[in-house]
Known about the structure:
The chain is of the alpha+beta class. It is 32% helix and 19% strand.
Amino acid sequence: MSSCVLEEETFHRCCRLLLQLSQQLGDGWSWEPVQGSQEGYLRKTALRSVVIDPRPVWDQEESSSDCGQEEEQSAPVASADADTIRSDAEDEDDEDEGVCAACDGDSQVLQYEYHVLFSCSYRTPVLYFRASTLEGRSLSLEEVWGSVHPNFRVRLQSSPLSTVTQQEHPLLGQPFFMLHPCRTEEFMRPVLQAAQDQHRPVNYVLTWLSVVGPVVGLEVPLQYSTQLHPAASVCMDPADDDPADDDPADDDPADDGPD
């Protein structure tokens, strides 16, 4: 693969395609421009019923091991397909349902707000999010970590997905949680390579989101993958990619997409 690095123009194109599909599926994504600049981000809100594990993180790790999950020093996530990553967690979820997930915490409904931004430093998308109670109280980092399913929690500590951290939103200047993007290219490269080898269309942002989203409760409907078309592919040589086709300024102003 000669070029599988995500450029900002390609990010915007992937976002436009995602927004079109989201509108068809009623999935709730929107594009939020930043006033006074040409930048913006994808945004979605959702209500989730979660059980927050009240125990310290180190106790949660020991409990995960007691539930039959092996502590991995180096998980081979970077060489796996996105479908493999998700299916592994789903398989363990079936096996451990009612065991690891049955914590001492109480179930509660939380309001989640998800933002997808482009990182110029890493040249990858980044998932920012925040969570609050219905009364408006923001969750702490410990509470957010406690709401992550034990199966995903183990993978976060031993895989290229890194971990959940708290950072300032680069466009809003407000505190948000994020999944650090330092190794996104590492686990996305084999996914994109496989799609290219099999001549399958792939939308970088959608594929990436289907991998990292479920970690923090953001599900990507399977209907997205059934409606992809070759125009969504981002695994291409620079010579085959006309930059003019990716210019967000060429979009119809009536379209609900990045400006």
